[in-house]
Structures are given as structure tokens and as C-alpha cells.
Specification:
It contains 9 helices and no strands. By secondary structure, it is an all-alpha fold. It is globular, with a radius of gyration of 20 Å.
């Protein structure tokens, strides 16, 4: 059954389409600008390399999913209400997954920076677990508000997830900055690695704060279209996640050289470098 669409609703859908198109263009631009580095640093990794699959997920799967969503949006309002609802559910689940995997990537980077010490792994594990527990209830509540398809309203409990994610990323960047401050006066490759990690973390933090600011606006503004937030989240998570992994791969290659026949974790070479320069 096809939903009748008023002129106002049609204009709203068109606005959503343009937001999706803009975020897709941003993702494509980032993909093209980093494609050469991807071929050089990511493709030679072994198939069982965890970070290679994380990169493929953040870069290629999210881009493909965004293209499919863009095509679906182009067909609106000609598609049925069930397809519209499925699109919203799919985007919601996908953004929750990408938010989690982005946090995992950031946690691994901190794990490497702090020398893979047990206390940092326990701290990061507790933070990620706490964030997951805080987000369960808001995410479940989202599905109760999807009756309007892509024109759904945001659940009032979304503020809980916004606050939890803000605390998580603020903690990540604080730890990275503290590590950077702790090596003032130290010279060598280790300092360069930590400085690069800190810079990448700051850029990711600023992009996530912009995304969370948009989410807060969606929570407070009337007649907002939360699906716009999902498209921006796809683009931001795709760019940040893939660039963070690519940055680690570039650092690894510069330290030890690109070795195709190794099956070690991506952080191992970085840890060796930091231990040589800082211990």
C-alpha cells in the first residue's frame, strides 16, 4: 500500500533527499582522496586481519549502504510504507553498529598508546560496556516512534544516548591529550606517533561533537527530521573510522615497512616503537 503524501510531506522528503545526497557526496569525496593510501596500506593486509575488515566495513559497506538508501529515497513517496519503515530501521541499526565500532577503534588506539597495559584495557572495557548499557533503553525506545516511516519523530530518551556518547568521546580525547602532555621533552619516533595519534583523535572528537550537537538540536527542535541525523552519522562514522585505521596502517608502515606476510595485530609495531623511545 502506498501512502498518500501531502505537499508539505513531499517537500520534507525532498529536503531529506538533499541531506542524504550531500552526505553521500562527502563520503565519496573522502573515499576518492584516500583511495591511493588504501591500496598501498590496507589491501596488502591478510584477510584475517581484524582491522582490515573494520576498514572495509567503515569505508566500503557504509558507502554501499548509503548509495542503496539514496536510491530508495529517490523512489519516495512511490514506495510502500513498509519499505519506508524498513529503511528507517536499517539506518538506525547501522548507525548504532558504526558508533560502537568507532569507539572500539578509538579504544584500540589508546590501548596502543598506553603500552597495552592491563589497567588501560580494563578502563576502556568498562567505558564501552557502560556506554552500551546506557544506550540499550534509548535504542529500544526508538522503534516505538517509527510509525511515520522516514518522517518519524525522535524519542525523548535520545538525550540519554547523546549524553553517554559525549562522555565516552570526551574521555577518549582526554586520555590521548594526557598521554601527549606526559611526553613533553621526549624526542624520537615515539613522540611523532603519539602526536599524530592525538591530532587524529582531536579531529575525530570535533567531528563527533558536531554530530552530537546536531543530535541535541534534533532532540529539542520542533518538526525536526531525525533521519537527517542518521545520514550525517553514516558519513561521519565512515570518514572517521576509515581514516583512523588508515592512519595506524601508515604509521606501522613507516616504522617497520609494509610486510604482507605478517599476521600480527595492527598495534604491535606501534607498541614496539613506543617502548623503544619512551621506556
Amino acid at each position: 500500500m502506498v501512502n498518500p503524501v501531502t505537499g508539505t510531506a513531499a517537500a520534507t522528503i525532498q529536503g531529506i533527499y538533499y541531506h542524504s545526497l550531500a552526505t553521500l557526496a562527502l563520503s565519496l569525496w573522502d573515499f576518492l582522496t584516500k583511495f591511493e593510501d588504501e591500496v598501498h596500506y590496507i589491501w596488502p593486509m591478510k584477510r584475517n586481519h581484524a582491522f582490515k575488515w573494520l576498514y572495509i566495513f567503515h569505508r566500503h559497506f557504509l558507502l554501499a549502504a548509503h548509495i542503496v538508501c539514496q536510491i530508495t529515497l529517490y523512489s519516495l513517496p512511490a514506495v510502500s510504507s513498509s519499505i519506508s519503515l524498513a529503511l528507517v530501521v536499517f539506518l538506525t541499526i547501522l548507525t548504532q553498529c558504526t558508533d560502537f565500532t568507532l569507539e572500539v577503534i578509538l579504544a584500540f588506539r589508546l590501548f596502543a598508546l598506553f603500552g597495552r597495559r592491563p589497567w588501560i584495557s580494563r578502563l576502556l572495557g568498562c567505558l564501552i560496556l557502560a556506554d552500551l548499557l546506557c544506550c540499550i533503553r534509548p535504542v529500544i525506545s526508538y522503534f516505538k516512534w517509527f510509525g511515520g516511516g522516514i518522517l518519524y519523530q525522535l524519542s525523548p530518551e535520545a538525550n540519554i544516548q547523546v549524553a553517554s556518547t559525549t562522555v565516552m568521546h570526551s574521555t577518549f580525547i582526554t586520555l590521548a591529550v594526557v598521554k601527549h602532555i606526559s611526553i613533553v621533552g621526549v624526542r624520537g619516533v615515539g613522540r611523532k606517533v603519539i602526536s599524530q595519534f592525538t591530532l587524529d583523535g582531536i579531529i575525530t572528537f570535533l567531528m563527533m561533537m558536531g554530530l552530537l550537537g546536531l543530535a541535541f538540536t534534533m532532540c529539542t527542535a520542533r518538526d525536526s527530521q531525525p533521519i537527517i541525523l542518521l545520514f550525517w552519522a553514516l558519513a561521519v562514522h565512515s570518514i572517521c573510522g576509515s581514516r583512523l585505521i588508515l592512519g595506524m596502517a601508515c604509521i606501522q608502515a613507516r616504522i617497520r615497512g609494509l610486510q604482507e606476510d605478517e599476521s600480527i595485530m595492527l598495534t604491535t609495531h606501534i607498541d614496539i616503537c613506543l617502548s623503544e623511545d619512551l621506556d
